[in-house]
């Protein structure tokens, strides 16, 4: 298991490059949910998403340890931007394999950071094959979106800040994050385990990409019965690494429909006046769907990002 010192070292390493994002509350949403919600706004993070944390922690170490002269990864968007941004900080070329269906806004952002985009079919097999081809041609070092201890340790720093900034007077009853590949959820659950062991960690997952809940139950990495969700950042399956951490430290995974995700996203836009992407709305959607589970509790939510394609809003 990733040690607490490793997470603290990651926080120190990335601190000069990231924002310490705010924790916001909203009375209307509290009243509607029946809970006391605290939103850790990683939509205000560098590159517009929490993934700057894990990408920086990994790439900075690749550069410091002279592990290679280029970086590669595969991603549908936010991790792609994170690695491109981090590679620019250390002056290394980055080769990012992205599904052709990834939002244009995310591809443009990756290109804007000076990285090379290699498009592939929207399957995990195609993404992994694309990365292997890049490595064969360039010798680039892979920074995996979630199956990497250095990435997980970086992602854990968001929950550390959440608990430091809003959990000291009274610990959180629950901390929530969405789950796709499980990097953020793994890191969040480890941070909570070390800092506030009485706090439960609960994940939200789209019904249209519901592999994590099956894996959580069976103990083996499972595939979703079908992939069809507005939450484009959560379509990836868990890895053995993230599943192991999640099963040890996460209390539950709750699934929500696209209709519930869109309603939660719209509520945040309207009431909090902030831009969040569909994946970010999944935990709130789970709270609103399961009011009885959260009633009267203090709940922290990692708002994962705000890189939404404004030309394709779902409302």
TrEMBL record:
Annotated coiled-coil segments of the chain: none
* Record keywords, A-Z: Lyase, Pyridoxal phosphate
Superkingdom of origin = Bacteria
Output the Gene Ontology terms for molecular function. ATP binding; D-serine ammonia-lyase activity; L-serine ammonia-lyase activity; magnesium ion binding; pyridoxal phosphate binding; serine racemase activity; threonine racemase activity
Biological process annotations from GO: D-serine biosynthetic process
InterPro entries membership: TrpB-like_PALP (IPR001926), TrpB-like_PALP_sf (IPR036052)
Tryptophan synthase beta chain-like PALP domain residues are: 14-305
Which Gene3D superfamilies does its entry note?
3.40.50.1100
Family assignment from sequence similarity: Belongs to the serine/threonine dehydratase family.
The protein's name is Pyridoxal-phosphate dependent enzyme
Taxonomy of origin reads: Bacteria, Pseudomonadati, Bacteroidota, Cytophagia, Cytophagales
């Amino acid at each position: 298991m990733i040690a607490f010192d490793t997470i603290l070292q990651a926080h120190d390493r990335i601190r000069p490059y990231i924002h310490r994002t705010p924790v916001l509350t909203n009375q209307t949403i509290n009243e509607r949910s029946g809970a006391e919600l605290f939103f850790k706004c990683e939509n205000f993070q560098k590159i517009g998403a929490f993934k700057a944390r894990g990408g920086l922690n990994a790439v900075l170490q690749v550069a410091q340890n002279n592990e290679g002269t280029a970086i590669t990864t595969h991603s549908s968007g936010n991790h792609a931007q994170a690695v491109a941004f981090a590679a620019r900080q250390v002056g290394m070329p980055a080769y990012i394999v992205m599904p052709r269906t990834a939002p244009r806004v995310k591809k443009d952002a990756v290109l804007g950071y000076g990285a090379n985009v290699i498009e592939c079919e929207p399957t995990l097999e195609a993404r992994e094959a694309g990365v292997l081809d890049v490595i064969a041609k360039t010798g680039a070092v892979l920074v995996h979106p979630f199956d990497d201890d250095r990435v997980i340790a970086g992602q854990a720093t968001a929950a550390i800040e959440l608990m430091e900034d809003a959990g000291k007077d009274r610990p959180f009853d629950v901390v929530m994050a969405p789950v796709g590949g499980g990097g953020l959820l793994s890191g969040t659950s480890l941070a909570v385990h070390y800092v506030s062991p009485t706090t439960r960690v609960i994940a939200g997952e789209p019904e249209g990409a519901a592999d994590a809940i099956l894996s959580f139950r069976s103990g083996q990495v499972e595939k979703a019965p079908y992939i069809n969700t507005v939450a484009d950042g959560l379509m990836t399956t868990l890895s053995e690494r993230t599943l192991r951490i999640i099963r040890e430290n996460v209390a539950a995974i709750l699934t929500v429909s696209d209709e519930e995700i869109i309603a939660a996203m719209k509520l945040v836009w309207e009431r909090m006046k902030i831009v969040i992407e569909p994946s970010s709305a999944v935990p709130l959607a789970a709270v609103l769907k399961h009011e009885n589970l959260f009633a009267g509790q203090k709940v922290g939510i990692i708002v994962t990002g705000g890189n939404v394609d404004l030309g394709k809003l779902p409302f």
